[in-house]
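User: quick one, sequence for these tokens?
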């Protein structure tokens, strides 16, 4: 498996999972165009688009940092045009940019609802739409959206606003898969079984205690890498979990991804258990 010579366009990769996915591709010498809004350091968020680009270059890839807003169609079109001008086309489109708010319908104002759905759903649609014309005819093109499987049992239908935003991403990705089957462009979604150590987990889901029960972002990056190397014409329209992908690819020890060895892992939303059924606790 290798992504050598491939070009990835990824949204929101200044830090965390997006940056880990970009660096995993960069390790093969891939080109990475990353679009994000973080140009200046934030007191609660590590990294900027420029520090991320430096890390991608240090990992072995070629980086093109682009300041932009995935909610703005013209901004997205401009970013994609810059990537194509620099690298000649796009092989991998990763919809990573996402906003989170776990409040109930009585707590999330419309402004926050619009922000989440604008970044998550509109952003996924806009980035995918802009990339697709430059993916047609490429060798093994993949669109990967970081969103959960759609489960409609009552216990999975809250919090309302965040559920709508994340399910919207998945619906977009699955629709794209069906529309592009004839073009040979794969579209799949990927989601972790456990909490993943990111700023969102630290700042919103329990601080250091939650981080101690999380897996490293590399669990997402390695699973994404496996998907990118699957045949696009055959592997499309799937909503899969990171750990399942890794185990099916031959990984025999998921504990290497644990932030704190031996800790009781926190299970992510829309997931029953931290490990694939039968794999162990």
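Assistant:
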């Amino acid at each position: 498996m290798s992504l050598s010579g491939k070009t990835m366009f990824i949204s929101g990769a200044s830090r965390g999972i997006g940056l880990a996915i970009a660096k995993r591709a960069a390790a093969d010498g891939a080109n990475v165009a990353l679009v994000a809004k973080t140009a200046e350091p934030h007191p609660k968020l590590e990294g900027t688009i420029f520090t991320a680009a430096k890390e991608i270059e240090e990992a072995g890839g070629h980086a093109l940092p682009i300041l932009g807003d995935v909610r703005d169609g013209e901004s997205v079109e401009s970013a994609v045009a810059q990537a194509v001008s620099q690298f000649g086309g796009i092989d991998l489109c990763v919809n990573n940019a996402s906003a989170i708010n776990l409040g109930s319908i009585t707590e999330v104002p419309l402004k926050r609802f619009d922000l989440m759905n604008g970044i998550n759903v509109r952003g996924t649609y806009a980035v995918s739409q802009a990339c697709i014309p430059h993916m047609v005819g490429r060798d093994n093109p993949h669109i990967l959206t970081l969103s959960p499987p759609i489960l409609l049992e009552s216990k999975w239908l809250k919090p309302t606003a965040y559920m709508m935003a994340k399910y919207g991403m998945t619906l977009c990705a699955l629709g794209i898969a069906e529309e592009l089957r004839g073009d040979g462009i794969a579209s799949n979604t990927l989601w972790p079984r456990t909490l993943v150590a990111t700023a969102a987990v630290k700042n919103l889901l329990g601080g250091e205690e939650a981080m101690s029960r999380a897996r490293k972002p590399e669990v997402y990056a390695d699973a994404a890498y496996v998907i990118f190397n699957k045949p696009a014409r055959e592997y499309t329209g799937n909503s899969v979990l990171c750990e399942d992908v890794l185990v099916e690819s031959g990984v025999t020890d998921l504990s290497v991804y644990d932030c704190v060895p031996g800790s009781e892992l926190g299970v992510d939303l829309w997931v029953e258990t931290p490990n694939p059924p039968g794999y162990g606790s």
